[in-house]
Predict the 3D structure of the following.
Amino acid sequence: MLMHILAAAALTVAQSESGSAQKETPPNIVVLFADDLGYGDLSCYGHPTIRTPHLDRMAAEGMRFTQFYSAAEVCTPSRAGLLTGRLPIRSGMCSDRRRVLFPDSSGGLPDDEITIAEALKGKGYATACIGKWHLGHLPQYLPTRHGFDFYFGVPYSNDMHNKQRGDPPVPLMRGEETIEQPVDQTTLTQRYTTEAVRFIRQSKARPFFLYVPHTFPHVPLFVSEKFRGTSRAGLYGDVVEELDWSVGQILQALRDEGLSERTLVIFTSDNGPWLTQKDRGGSAGLLRDGKGSTWEGGMREPAIAWWPGTIKPGSVCQELATTMDIFTTSLTIAGVPIPSDRTIDGKNLMPVFRGGKSECEAVYFYRGTRLMAVRKGPFKAHFITQSAYGPDSQRPESHDPPLLFNLDVDPAERFDVAKNHPNVLTEIAREVERHLGELKQGKPQLDEILGK
Amino acid sequence: MLMHILAAAALTVAQSESGSAQKETPPNIVVLFADDLGYGDLSCYGHPTIRTPHLDRMAAEGMRFTQFYSAAEVCTPSRAGLLTGRLPIRSGMCSDRRRVLFPDSSGGLPDDEITIAEALKGKGYATACIGKWHLGHLPQYLPTRHGFDFYFGVPYSNDMHNKQRGDPPVPLMRGEETIEQPVDQTTLTQRYTTEAVRFIRQSKARPFFLYVPHTFPHVPLFVSEKFRGTSRAGLYGDVVEELDWSVGQILQALRDEGLSERTLVIFTSDNGPWLTQKDRGGSAGLLRDGKGSTWEGGMREPAIAWWPGTIKPGSVCQELATTMDIFTTSLTIAGVPIPSDRTIDGKNLMPVFRGGKSECEAVYFYRGTRLMAVRKGPFKAHFITQSAYGPDSQRPESHDPPLLFNLDVDPAERFDVAKNHPNVLTEIAREVERHLGELKQGKPQLDEILGK
């Protein structure tokens, strides 16, 4: 809510980027967010048969990250983290029982959380959310109540029509109205793209914030006629290639409107590949495990930033970054003060975009409300591990001392080096103590069920 | 030997490429060959912390292959395949007992095999082998006896100084003389590069064939002072980054000499990463297993072809290709007839370089002399599997019916689909029957030991 922002901003004035930005029109911001896309699923991240020429070009014209993390290992908390710049544990948007929101959930993103859209509206930004929301489907939680002028999309995951649970068919919404139920999923990517391009064309006179959380490649997979059977990598490949096409359309619209040099576009995904779906799920490439786990494959994502004239073309960035940084970066370049009444975990990526160092000192890997692992520099300590698939998926395993991996040397988390680095373990233990000491957990939002 | 070539060529006249090439100076050919580099080890193939800006640029200016195979799962047979265009089983350059040549081996590449260097010499090519040979260290097997005007390098692998076996220290040779023993391995990549650049400068008036089989990243790893400790990915990363630097130097020399548009450069590796070496070995990315196995990780390689003006910049090629194609392609563009008195397995890659289809219909996966698997189109049937590391590495496992994977959809070989594709199994069985029916095994070269 805007009220909160004004209060939150009272004490802080954003520096550096905002000085000049306040005089000119601040840049547009576009966030393209895939669902369950794995680290290894794009051609420019090494996939051998999925063709992603538009994302490859985006990377060639921009910056490709290799150590970019989502805020969580599953959908709802990940999205909360991105839009608020805060670990989902702080907003209560994570849970050990119900890992995400369901159609019978009565909770959602709390009103007192500040989303990027809310923060930017005060600067005159036009704001749109086009795609899968998954931060509460009741009216009071919809995108339109969280700073978005415009909403078009589905309120939660495309598989959430469990008849035993009493789920209704998955609806498609425009604003706060259901316009189609069940939604025709085959044309969703096409329709999101059309809406996104239209929004860009309509909003070009103002600065705008466009958030496109795609429904796919989350299972069940659907693809338009145009893409069906066209990839070598099966239906999953078709779906990712249609997503790639969508990215190409959106970037081309920006070019056509002459907005390239004043628009930051970031493409990434909410969590790793859904490995239990077998050949319907994606690949984490060389990383271990996938969606739902706090192994690298669950939370390290493909991520590409594009801003011609500001980001050097063809950069490969090995700096630590997270989706929560999108919040802080967006506010900074828009000249909006970072809220000072709450902990913001995201860092400003502008120095990184300019080839400098990341301000991100540690990455926290939560599974629900449990802190499972912490990364500091190249080292990641796992206190608890739990695979998201296969025989190990049923039971968490605690580690004391923690497992320790040097991710720079061993990105696949194969060789425990805890014995060789007692000092690192000490340092990480201190980091955890500090973190947990200052942590204020938000009121849990995911476990309440409608009518119960 | 040249005599063999003339005889072999009598009946065949190379077509298409040679017509015009014979009038002008034919193009130069440079083959840069890494040792034990994995599919996932380059930045442009998705490695998160190894920086390979020169290879990335080579790919951006050329063609990056995603389905490119070495001729074998280990070193000696792989090199025999590349230089002769023939499966190593045909030249006798593979074995089940001793998988490669050792310093006490008395065999080597037979005199009646035709190497690329021999074939091209007849067209006036200057030829050089700079790096690790590993096709016989006795004088009669050295590069200088197989068509290379110039040789500088080590005769076999850099770890082959086993005192119990009575190995001498690893020598460095120039021509047929040992010039340093033990070789200082820390400067090898630098020295290979210097020699390669010098050869290019000296040979620029003629067409030339330059073969640079690097010693690294084969274990033990050595790197020059300049690169030591500079990568984020440990010593392995340092070594690969020095290799990348070397590629950059060689490409720059070609640019400086104005040879870019008349030089085909191919970069690839002899086999997959050496996984038993743990963090000293590389990564096969999303592929299964590594060096020594016939799972994809053992034989699918990073491969980049560069030929400005002929190959479209930034191409990603999903066509099937093998290192044996380098033989046939080289002869074709040099206007040399393909030998007709023997089976040549390599195909001409020129159509592929121009964006067309591969002529490669099947890939044979031998482990020593055993045919373990066959790939036809997207399908790979495993008759026998054996991991190269871990508990499964000690015993081959036979499969009847074979395991069948659709590599386009499932590059990681996770989901056996044999039951769904009986026709594919029949077709592959027919392919195997045809192949084994025409197969003439060469006299075994790898098992004889000096003085025994």
In short: Chain B touches chain A at residues 39-40, 43-49, 51, 53, 56, 60, 66-67, 232-234, 236-237, 278-279, 283-286, 300, 314, 316, 318, 378, 406-412, 414-415 (CB under 8 Å). Chain B is about 25% helix and 20% strand. Residues 6-22 of chain B have pLDDT under 50 and may be disordered.
